[in-house]
Amino acid sequence: MFESACLSLEQWRFFRSWVANPLRVAAVAPSSDSLARIMTNEITPLHSPVLELGAGTGVFTRALLNRGVPEEALTLVEFGSEFARLLQFRFPRARVLWMDASQLAGHNIFQERSVGAVVSGLPLLSMTPRKVMSILIVAFLYIRADGAFYQFTYGPRCPISRSILDRLGLKARRIGGTVRNLPPAAVYRITRRPPPRGLAGNPGIFLAAPRYPIDCGVSQHLKFSVTT
Question: I need a labelling partner for 189 at 20 to 30 A (CA). Which of 105, 118, 124, 153 fits?
Answer without folding.
Answer: 105
